[in-house]
Please model this.
Amino acid sequence: MAIIRVPAPSPQAFRKNRPISDLVKSQIRHFQHLEHKLQLNLPTKFSPHDLTTEAAAAQYIAEMTTALRDPAAVRQAPVPIVAAPPKKPDSTPARRSAPKSHHKQTRQSRGTAKTTSAVPKKSHAKKHAPAKHPRKRS
Amino acid sequence: MTPDRSKPGIKKLKHVVVLMMENRSFDHMLGGLKAQNSAIDGLTGNESNPDTTGAQVPVLPLAEYQSQLDPDPNHHFAAVNLQIFGDPAKGPPLPPSMQGFVRSYYNQQQNVGHSHKILYYFTPDKLPVLSTLATEFAVFNRWFSSIPGPTICNRAFAHYGTSFGQVSMDLFYVGKQYKSIYERLLAANNTVKLFYYDQASSTMEVVNLLQNEPSLFGTFPDFLRACDQNALPDYCFIEPNYTDHDAPDGSGEAIACDQHPDHDVRAGEQFIATVYNKIRSNPQLWASTALLIVYDEHGGIYDHVSPPPCTPDGFVAQPKDTGTLDSFHFDRLGVRVPAILISPWVQKGSVINDVFEHASIPATVTDFFLGAYDARSPREKTANTFLDQLSLKTMRSEEDCPSFEFE
Model:
């Protein structure tokens, strides 16, 4: 049968400074419970009231997930923070608010839709890849 | 129903993959398919809800990919009571009329016009992936969320066959009486994996599985590699990306693909298509895999089918937990959600009318991989299983199954 074409999200769809949903707030609460219970020392020192945007939440969640999957990663001393909140909820892509140098590299790679019938072209990855896009904004 | 193991599709079956998306009702995503196939219990266009002025507001095919359901529609227990029974404080014996969705959404902004959007649905052409898979494989007319409430307790039913009395997003620790489907399978030397999108999106199963069984987890790229390398575990559960964020490895922007309002629904369509294409493009995997796409709960969005009663779960949530005047005995299901079963052994255009819920997932996986297994919740023990839908005598041809290409 015919190949079905799948529309891409709009260029404005990515809004990392969107306020977090109740779902992500709950996810953070669960991680914070474990952070305190297990007395984890994350590479970044997060202030709970700064975790208001999806980007900031994601940074915290990434460090917590790494800590839970690889406890050796949290043996280093904490460094002072980061995760600045946005000025306001926005509708445009925003800049990263945390220094990447504190991130532990993951095993993840750009592996999304490379199949026989769905191969994102690198030069148009923003349109083609379902979830991971080359950084086009600083 | 236990599948007939003499059927070729069941004999071939080696992998069950479940992809659980976020917060959309059946009618919102698939209701428009009724116009194409009357066997699909979608919308006639005559369904309506009263708004706060007393006017009857009809369902309309005006759903947009993003920026329409903002704020996020309330779908906590009391709000769902209002949506189903017309009263936030009471449930049965009030009839489940499904007439309170507009009033529930109105409560969040006191905007009459905006409250009507909770009735909007997608036409099939706007959701080519979900609509195509629903019509080309098997769509469930009666797959309900397990609890008339939010995400985390509903997802618990997919992992444990129960939420251990939880009806909210609060933190909870699982009881020892029922093991997760992953622990059961591992104990029997089966292979399992939960694939979250990446470290920054992670899982909603934080306090129990991620804390205690971190080796159960992998990332979405791990899933894709496993498909390429014919190394897919026996049972896989995939979680979408829950946030827009920069990828932790610096490879680019990771757009949320969970379809939770107000994330762009098209990103979720592409994610579903990626999972499907990846399995389909490996002939060995395609012949031996059953893929279930299902949504965790309705997200406060309208559906016209009243949730039915179900076997009580043995737990009781008190009024302080439900936020209503009633305790809850886990004896009725939540609002209906989209669910699609995909395999080349499934008859094209199948429409399944039996009742399913998320406890059907561990019930099916346990039944297929382990057989008799007693230490399960009453809900899971009585939940329907779905692999009998792999009923064809010969596998469908390559040409007979759709594939997707990204614009």
